[in-house]
Amino acid sequence: MQRRRFLTLAGAGGALLSAPVVAQEAPAINWRMPSSFPRSLDTVWGAAEYLTKRVSDLTDGKFTIRGFPAGEIVPPLQVLDAVQNGTTECGHTAGFYYLGKEPALAFDTGVPFGLTPRQQMAWLLHGGGGALMDELYARFNALAIPCGNTGAQMGGWFRKEIKTVDDLKGLRIRTPGMLSMVYEKLGAIPQQVAGSDIYPAMEKGALDAVEFVGPYDDEKLGFAKVASYYYGPGVMELGANLCLAINRDSWAKLPPRYQEALRAASAMAADDLLAKYDANNIVALKRLVGQGVKLKAWPREVMHAMQSATKQVLEDYAAKSPQFAKVFASWREFRADQLLWNSVNDGAAENYLMATREKGL
Prior knowledge:
GO terms for molecular function: metal ion binding. The chain is of the alpha/beta class.
């Protein structure tokens, strides 16, 4: 009888001893997360909301992150600054917005004539790219977790038809990151304009052209009302990887299970975002064409000029910065192998399907 009573008390005592440990492993933590993207886009901003909900679900509501659309608490192109100085614990943004801070951060998002979403993730996760990005973000007291990709973006909206490279000269075009450097080489006048400010700038005539994302987002922002010509393919942006930038001090204070919840939620948000774009872009494009938008393909001469200018921009940066050269060398070698693999398998299969789509399944 006494033995049973002792075991009962011991069991109760064990539960009491373990309770504080469990509480310590799952504290209530609340973060703020400004985004570089407006609430009007249920794709990229929707991915931010998706991410925060998954973090809460995975931690039984103990770890919550409140998202803020572009400009609500932090200017859209200063999210990394807020993370760096600890104004917010994390931010939803893209590395290529911070070209002025560190040009090599463009590789975290994507550069012209670069990697597809699958290839980008392969480079970041298994090709050495992730370690290189960690080095870069550490300089800003941050780390970055991939949390979405837009897939290949369209070439953009233009008020006039682009027949030759000369037609780009003098054009005031909204375009971010490394793309702006390429357009500058081609004689255009690139402008850094946040997504929420593009339509008013086009409507007032302050811009002649805009490169944003793709049909689904572009339709929502009303670009068809202020420009008639819509260009592709998206050789200048085969994908744009978004990131969850996290203050390193805030990250270090998180319990390991919350860190894993952030990584898992980011991966789920990434899958959902790319799937949403793939499903919705073609439907939106059909609507736009039906409304009279003039869908055009870049002339090959123009694409050749864009590629040549991209090569020059990348090599110029590499010549000035050992850090940029290091990242560029890794990326370039990985890209060469991916293009070879694509020519053997995925790309070859897709080319066949396109060539036979009228006769095939």
